[in-house]
Amino acid sequence: MNTEPPPPPPPRLSPATGPESDPRAIHARAIVNGISDRSLYNNLITLYSKSNHSSYSLPLFTQIPKPNVVSWTALIATQSDTFLSLRHFVSMLRHPTLPNQRTLASLFRTCAAVSSLSFGLALHSLSIRLSLSSQPFSGSALVHFYSKSRLPLDARKVFDEIRDRDEVCYAALVVGLAQNSRPIDALAAFYEMISSEVRSTMYSVSGALRSAAELAALEQCRMVHAHAMVTGLDTNAVVGSALIDAYGKAGFVSDARRVFDENLRINIVGWNAMMAAYAQQGDNDSIIKLFTSMEAQGLRPDDYSFLAILSSLSNAGLDIESERWFTRMIEDYKLKPGLEHYTCVVGAFSRAGRLCDAEKIANTMPFVPDAAVWRALLSGCAYHGEADMAWTMAKRLIELNPNDDSAYVIVANVLSSAGRWEEVSEVRKMMKNQRVKKEVGRSWIEVRGKVHEFLAGDHLHEMRDDIYKKLTELMEEIEKFGYVPVWDEMLHEVGEEEKRKSLWSHSEKLALAFGIISGAFPPGKAIRIVKNLRICRDCHEAFKFISKVLDREIIVRDVNRYHRFFNGTCTCGGVW
To answer: Could you tell me which residue ranges the DYW domain spans (predicted)?
Structure first.
């Protein structure tokens, strides 16, 4: 009788099991045991791609006698986000092996990462021929590709053609629309997802919050927040950071701080979002306190932490403080400033009137100055009435982008303020020759959960007659209290009545008038408006008077910062 114990069972070599985390160990055991199973090699390629030994994937692939679509897909995924992935796909077709939807999904993500629109369009055509473009897996990746390619309408069209849309498909659409500055469409897609009873993910919720943040739509923020709480996503670090960002950009820093304090999973991104919220309000003291608390918690500040501090100091024109924090960033924290950090310092110096010093920084920093740098200098010249230097800065902006309407508009405003009408005419001629059109002013106001949009000189709103009637009443009333129109920013040398009519029909004034007659803002509730451009000096002056006459708080978020008007003053202190 044989009393020897039975031999141990052969080792399981599937990558999904076993204690080894290093694919080389599994690979070695396969060689020792003489196993050359194709499915094992396919899994090994995937494991190598996720390890520090991804270079082993291609040699391993060449050992597969007859690679199938799974083998090719694994190899393509290994080289994702590089052009090698696309080369492998061409080789795959030559063998020939046709892709499945997972192959196409990986390739669409690669085309988005390497900005290869032409290859992506060819893949889309192939996916249609193979009836794969309407499949959820490849379809969602295709939505992502078009979104990254700045083609949101095509992304929406692809989405509409997908059968059995799941949470990944909706998340790709919501995030894509949000990233392409189509916040209203993104929110509509998010609510469509909810009504279709499709499960939310942290991506779809954070995308909806990003859209609400862009609109500074408080009610939308709260509705998405409530949904996140019901689904249990509010404790997620990504969603928590998005909530802080959304409430901060809506101007409700107290709500942002409440989310920040209640979410125990907040990481450095959340801390930076909270600091950025304070920065938008110009609350320098709270930013510094939060920065100190962050260090006390053992978190190391990063580039974005200092960017929040420097942007706040820049908006306030605190040049000495900006210089001190910039130096601390380099010497104490050993962080390398980026172009954005230098731009903040240039902005602070410009607003403080140190225009020559600001220009010196721009010319000596280790980056080629971009449009934001010269625009910061140009804005400083405009604020201090330095027309000659403004001309120089405007020309540098125009050299970078001859179609940059802001360069022409700002310098024309400076020249018109100085009464240099011949040069204003020259600027207008340059704009005409270059076919540059001034960006239309747009303002948004949220009333009872619905976002209303107004353009400058808008006559499309259903309540336009009532809006203009209320606006006329307001302007006539504040004139009795000493309001004088600011004509300086008018580009045309026209009659006073025409100037008055043009100034009165600015989009933010129309939004304000609508907010007042809507009945949605009872006494004590601030009227909140978002502007796509810098609020003009006349609207700024008018809003100060209106806030005092009506005894109302008016909050405007323009492209630069928040303005809180109350009792005839603004928190920006006249610097924006």
So the answer is: 482-576
Written as six digits, the tokens of 506 are: 């600015």
What are 452's strand-pairing partners? Answer: 445
pLDDT, tens digit (0-9, with 9 covering 90-100), for 345-370:
999 999 999 999 999 999 999 999 99
Domain ranges of the chain: 29-164, 368-439, 443-570
For residue 382, count CB atoms less than 10 angstroms from its CB and return exposed for 0-12, middle for 13-18, buried for 19 or more.
buried
User: In this structure, what token pair is assigned to residue 228?
Assistant: 């996140």
Phi, psi at 60, each rounded to 5°: -65, -40
445 CB contacts (<8 Å, ≥6 apart)?
A: 451, 452, 454, 511, 512, 514, 515, 527, 528, 529, 530
* 74-103 pLDDT, tens digit each: 889 888 888 989 999 999 999 889 999 999
CA distances for 565 relative to 82, 286, 447, 521, 548, angstroms: 51, 21, 19, 15, 9
As to burial, measured by CB atoms within 10 angstroms (0-12 exposed, 13-18 middle, 19+ buried), residue 461 is middle
Architecture of domain 368-439 in this structure: Alpha Horseshoe (1.25)
Instruction: Specify the 3-state DSSP secondary structure of 569.
Output: strand
Sheet holding 527-531, edge to edge: 450-455, 442-447, 527-531, 554-557, 562-566, 569-570
The token duo for 514 is 């609508």
Query: 434: buried, middle or exposed (CB in 10 Å: 19+, 13-18, 0-12)?
Result: middle
Q: Summarize the confidence of residues 496-502 as an average pLDDT.
A: 71
Q: If residue 316 lies in a helix (H) or strand (E), which one and from where to where? A: none
Q: How confident is the model at residue 10 (pLDDT cuts 50, 70, 90)?
A: very low
